[in-house]
Write a sequence for this structure.
């Protein structure tokens, strides 16, 4: 038997080292799908502006090449933006609490400038990534995609996003769509003032055409895009 002295002299047992999990496998198809969404090339937007299922393969192929080139720039810009935002948020809270120094204010402004620079860099890279695929579209289609990207924050049906509106007009349209959806639940009808707003919006040629395209072509274009992604 071992004595207490021998036990005391024995080295402590080594702690168990947990096995490191391998990184999750990369999925190029998922990455490309996410990239298409990031730049505003989702199936709904592309259907609304008139991309056909027959043109999906060439469109995705053109984007695939440019996306691979710009991905590193976008990732680096996103990382820089996130870091600057964390720092600026912490500094802002410190300054607002009354504990910030003049140096903190200067550093806060520097972090805001870093965020702006990172966003500019990311936006430029995303524009470059879009360019080869958008070159396959008409000028009108490119303009409509730009409008969709600018107006998507209103979170309204895709066909309405093709048309630029003032803030007052967007609010009126949003309220009208909400009233149209809710009124039947309570046995009522869309209020006349809301019906007029909807009638005017839906009578726009671009809106009407986009709605028709979405109703008839969305499923086929989505399938064609999915097939092109996994090629």
């Amino acid at each position: 038997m071992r004595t207490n002295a021998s036990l005391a002299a024995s080295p402590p047992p080594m702690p168990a080292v947990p096995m490191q999990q391998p990184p999750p496998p990369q999925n190029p198809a998922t990455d490309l799908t996410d990239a298409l969404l990031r730049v505003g090339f989702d199936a709904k937007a592309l259907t609304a502006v008139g991309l056909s299922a027959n043109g999906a393969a060439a469109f995705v192929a053109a984007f695939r090449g440019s996306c691979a080139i710009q991905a590193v720039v976008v990732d680096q810009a996103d990382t820089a933006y996130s870091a600057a935002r964390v720092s600026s948020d912490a500094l802002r809270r410190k300054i607002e609490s009354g504990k910030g120094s003049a140096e903190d204010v200067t550093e806060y402004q520097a972090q805001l400038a870093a965020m702006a620079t990172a966003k500019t860099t990311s936006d430029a890279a995303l524009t470059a990534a879009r360019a080869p695929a958008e070159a396959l579209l008409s000028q009108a289609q490119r303009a409509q995609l730009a409008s969709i990207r600018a107006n998507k924050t209103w979170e309204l049906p895709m066909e309405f996003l093709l048309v630029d509106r003032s803030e007052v007009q967007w609010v009126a349209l949003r309220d009208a769509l909400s009233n149209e959806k809710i009124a039947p639940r309570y046995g009522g009808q869309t209020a006349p003032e809301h019906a007029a707003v909807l009638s005017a919006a839906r009578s726009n040629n671009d809106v009407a055409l986009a709605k028709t395209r979405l109703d008839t072509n969305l499923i086929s274009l989505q399938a064609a895009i999915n097939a092109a992604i996994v090629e």
Q: What stands out?
A: Residues 1-25 have pLDDT under 50 and may be disordered. DSSP finds nine helices and no strands in the chain.
